[in-house]
Amino acid sequence: VVGRWAGEIEGNPAIELVLKTENDKLVGSAIFFRLRQDGSGSFAKEEVPMIEPIFAERKLTFGVKRPDGTMLKLEMELTGEREADLKPLDEKKSSSDEMVIKMKKVE
Fold first, then answer.
1. Is residue 73 a contact partner of residue 87, using CB atoms and an 8 Å limit?
2. pLDDT tens digits, 3-21
3. What DSSP state is assigned to residue 96?
4. Cα separation of 15 and 77, whole Å?
5. What is the pTM of this model?
6. Which of 1, 34, 48, 67 has the fewest beta carbons closer than 10 A?
7. Beta-ladder partners of 80
8. Do 68 and 51 meet the contact criterion of CB atoms below 8 Å apart?
9. CA 71 from centre of chain
10. Torsion angle (degrees, nearest 10) of CA 40, 43, 44, 49
11. What is the pLDDT of residues 57-106, one digit of tens each?
12. What sign does the dihedral 89-67-53-35 (CA atoms) show?
């Protein structure tokens, strides 16, 4: 799971996860891409540290702080050697509305 993972929504960059080990501990950051509202079509990046990333049984779970200070919990489940599904764990949704971002290992 260590490396750089990238996910897109409708062909546009949405999120990157960067994972590494430091002193035998998993650490990482999440980079969120947001479309700029200036009409340029470019994306702004916001990098935030992962909180308590844990990898077990082909699943990475971690949290990130939202701009309003609340916690967003996410889970990335490996579906192949270089592929995974990323989804929120704490969002209110019906099962048919579940948001899943297809992730690919790029490094």
1. no
2. 999 999 999 999 999 999 9
3. G
4. 15
5. 0.88
6. 67
7. none
8. no
9. 13
10. 180
11. 999 999 999 989 999 999 999 999 999 999 999 666 545 457 899 999 99
12. positive
